[in-house]
Amino acid sequence: xxxxxxxxxLAGGFVVFLGPDDRWCRWIGDGRVLEDPAExxxxxxxxxxxxxxxxxxxxxxxxxxxxxTGLPRPVEIREAIRAFGPTVGGGSGASxxxxxxxxx
Amino acid sequence: MYRYxxxxxxxxxxxxxxxxxxxxRRLAGEITEDQFKPLRLKNGVYLQLxxxxxxVNVPYGTLSSRQLRKFAHVARTYxxxxxxxxxxxNIQYHWIRLEQVPDILEELASVEITTIxxxxxxxxxxxxxxxxxxxxxxxxxxxxxxxxxRQYSVLHPEFSYLPRKFKIxxxxxxxxxxxxxxxxxGLRMHRNAAGEIGFEVLVGGGLGRTPYIxxxxxxxxxxxxxxxxxESILRIYNIYGRRDNIHxxxxxxxxxxxxxxxxxxxxxEDFAASKITSRPELPQEEIDRIAAYFAPPxxxxxxxxxxxxxxxxxxxxxxxxxxxxxxxxxKQPGYAIVNVTLKAPGxxxxxxxxxxxxxxxxxxxxxxxxxxxxxxxxxLVLPYVRQRDLHTVWKKLDALVLATPNLNLLSDVISCxxxxxxxxxxxxxxPVAQDISARFVDVDRLAAIGPLTINVSGCxxxxxxxxxxxxxxxxxxxxGKEFFQLTLGGSSDQNASxxxxxxxxxxxxxxxxxxxxxxxxxxxxxxxxxxxxxxxxRVGIEPFKEAVYGTGEERAIA
Amino acid sequence: MTGLVRNGELVEDPFVDVxxxxxxxxxxxxxxxxxxxxxxxxxxVARREPLGVKLRSDQMPQAIADDLEHFDVIALEFPKxxxxxxxxxxxxxRERYGYKKELRAVGEVLLEQxxxxxxxxxxxxxxxxxxxxxxxxxxxxxxxxxxxxTGDGRPTAMQLRRQRLQQQQS
Lengths: 104, 558, 170
Fold this sequence. Notes:
The complex is a heterotrimer of chains A (104), B (558) and C (170).
Chain A: E1 2-9, E2 15-18, E3 24-25, H1 37-52, E4 56-66, E5 72-74, H2 77-84
Antiparallel strand pairs in A: 1-2, 1-4, 2-3, 4-5
Chain B: H1 6-27, H2 33-41, E1 45-47, E2 52-56, E3 62-64, H3 65-78, E4 82-85, E5 91-96, H4 101-109, E6 127-128, H5 143-153, E7 168-171, E8 185-191, E9 197-203, E10 215-221, H6 226-240, H7 251-258, H8 260-276, H9 284-293, H10 306-315, H11 317-326, E11 327-329, E12 335-340, E13 351-353, H12 354-367, E14 371-374, E15 380-386, H13 390-399, E16 414-415, H14 430-439, H15 443-449, E17 454-457, E18 471-478, E19 481-488, E20 500-501, E21 506-507, H16 511-525, H17 532-539, H18 542-549
Parallel strand pairs in B: 6-7, 7-8, 16-17, 17-18
Antiparallel strand pairs in B: 1-2, 2-5, 3-14, 4-5, 4-13, 8-9, 9-10, 11-12, 12-15, 14-15, 18-19, 19-20, 19-21
Chain C: E1 2-6, E2 9-11, E3 16-17, E4 30-33, H1 34-39, H2 41-46, E5 51-55, E6 73-78, H3 85-96, E7 102-107, H4 111-120, E8 124-128, H5 132-140, H6 157-169
Parallel strand pairs in C: 3-4, 4-5, 5-6, 6-7, 7-8
Antiparallel strand pairs in C: 1-2, 1-8
Helix pairs in contact in C: 4-5
């Protein structure tokens, strides 16, 4: 099972993924895919240390699959919405259309 | 409307300064997230799926054009160019950064708007009738008491750590547009035998996981006793309310557990005892002082101009539809109440762009004495429009896509933000609302169907008030897929009722067809003058179950 | 560190909390639990030493309302800061039952709550902070205007507005 670490940035609130070098990135495509449970646990531990350092809030592991373009896609719809944004547009009337991001 | 004096300003400034310090301490790690969370909630700051969400109070739904312009400015400067009006007369922003919140609070404070206690285990925004002060059927303006209760409940030292949130609603009309029967405390203004105006007090109503209709705890409380009586209700709740289980912590649970008679006994005991020791007084002079802020605007002496309006309507079918559905009769001759619907086909219910807000503020200035209201169905109101300006106002609203003529009709759907935004949700509610409003576009058909409320919630917390929709739709998660359970027969008015479950959950794509089937069955069965709710109450759920699921066996859901 | 701030000063606690102990010492100022008070009432009264009682958040002050004269300190516990029952208990003790001596907030007492606690009638606080007194003073100054009356006698905004109006009229 492939996983990634997802969290919210404490000060900014936006969604972030643990990337290479244990840094956080906003785009899921830049994040680090964890191939086995041991790697996943280690990454989560790193993330929790960063939570204690007040960088992120509530880091968790999520399951992902890799699509045919190589992009990780969360399996659960809620995490997919976090990764790619709402499936609906904001605003009333004319501007209400499909949301941002690469939902499928 | 109420205007802050130096005391109100100072309290808000001190609160913002305190929160600024708290944010700083959190970012520096001096307090943990667990300790910070209730502090930020008490300032209306939620952490949602994508970002922080900020919930801003619109006290009892009354808004000035100046405040609306500030909402537009916040949307543009700190968010993604739009805001979202909620079912509790508040506005929310969904893309906020925590580090900017103290600045946003200062901006809002400059126009006398706060986020104080818009969340947290304390008394929340006091809500009321969106037609307060202008409705023909009104006994007295409830907003006077809403403002008194607002000041009474803000930063109350005894009640800032209640077992759970606490919601109060007030109606001044026998036609309850404030849904008092499904609030923790509901207040209904009416006259006693001596002809004096006072309050019927209801307690223990609420939606969510375990919905209840409120019980009457006292038939009549005099205005001067109102704050003291509310204090006793809150005190008994604070002491006896359950704290062992977050889902059993509302006052409705303890009222139904003890029974209303026992709860009343405890409250009356405290109320009698506080008379001797200390209670919050409400002298008539204070009631009068606040009432002065809600005096009517400088109306012109005008006549009703029905004939003129009829002639205009006859020559313009689109105007006629809007006039018929979105305009309500006004207390003052020559005036009208204009409902501004945020429900265009396919719209996100309650969402409004910064540009729309600014333009609407201009319209309010020119045609409504600079004032607006927020209702409970995610629409806005211009409360003081001259009848002779109706056609002009309609054209301006129409150009802004704010004149969809569907108030209280089927496509006037309310919806919580749902799984697209909210960390609590099980399913996406907005697409369901969009699908329904995009399917039912023909206004003449909608008019033929008549009043029919559809309320969509993305989870059991019921922020979409699905229990009290004529048709309620509840999103559930079944093995990772989104399903939607329908309920029928809910109502939030003075004859409040909770909806009955129709059957197993439906897939999202099947919901509009199910609504069609329900509507068609209603049209077949209805008798002269019956709304959907009336027919449902007469014939029961079986005909509608059949219509959606077929006769005999229920449709199998994977 | 945890410090006891009483009446705005950092003090040494003269009381020993024995509410969790199996036996009660014969001498010394002690704070007992409600159960210990009820079980050993006569003996405790006979000691003629400073005595305190500590109530848990599920123990209503009604239980000691008739015995207030025997206590030099009443400690009300906040087991978690979210548990707000003791705010009501404090007001009842001060305003309903007339308790006048030390009313102490113990347990998870956060700086953010000190202001509310003061208004409800607490005058002593167990504060966990590197600088308990400094933290107390800062927190107590958070607000200078209040809407609601409590027994603390601080004038509310309503009262101040009325005063101002009367001054203007005279």
